[in-house]
Amino acid sequence: MDHSADQVCVYHLSSTAVLPKISVTLKNQLVNASLLNATCGDQYVRLSGVTQLGPPTGLKYDGMARLQTRTGTAVCDPSSGSLIIPAGSHIRELTLLIGADTNYDQTKGNEENNFSFRGEDPSVYVESVTSEASAKTESNLRAAHNADYQSLMGQFSLDLPDTAGSANLELSEILDRFAQKDTSDPYLESLLFTLDRHLFISSERENSLPTNLAGRWSETLTAAWSADYHSNINFQMNHWGVDQTGLGDLQAASWNYIQDTWVPRGTETARLLYGAPGWVVHDEMDIFGHTGMKDTAQWANYPASAAWMMQHVYDHFSYSQNVTWFTAQGYPLLKGIAEFWFSATT
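Now predict its structure.
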């Protein structure tokens, strides 16, 4: 369970029988051992480190899994950084609270901060959120999570007729049948529509980065296209139907991301490549302010991408009628793009 309100992931395990020996360990499969530090202590395991030694030194990261269930027998194995719950603990359930963070700070991606994108050490925050969550019961955490999620999902519903008789079939069977037939399946289409809203709710919150190209919850360590932000259609697609189905407030993460990472470097790109005011980006961005063309010009030469994204900025104002937001953030974004294109086309 990913719990947005308490900023932790909750892992709850229960059984009708006594649980066997359980070992809790955090690992980082992306870097070698010299870049990480695995430790454990009373009721927790922890993994911290940097992404590279440098220079420049990479970003710091910190993750902690705190055992909420007081077994009285959990043992720290410092050699492996593992927390061991012996088989003789005689417990039938346990709850782990997992918190993680880095020192990445997109508000530091500007000239004033030397485009460092570096903020505070994440360790204090990680300790705080896992400690605060551990003071709550698993049932209370679950209830708060459900209330938060349903308040968003419940903003809109779509009911389509089950003309193909799919409601009582396994999803795999529905998909196989759909792939082999030319007829539509409204029931499946409504499921996919709901899944799309679920993914957006689970991927984009105001205090996070926006949903990316390959998905926040990628199942691989090396996601397609580096799981970056392609604004030649993919970033826009993530926002299709968001305002229209009651999830517009979640887009704050996208507007902040554009303001903090596209505009500062995009202003330089507009000046250096086009001799123009305002700002511009091209088709492929990351979280560190890359706004120039990347690789082959055949597809990288796409300065229209930001202007296309501005359609969603104006859509958000059209649906929200939030004048305060539009004055402070929406209009300045639109103005910068308008200045660029007025210069580039005259």
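The chain has a mean pLDDT of 93.
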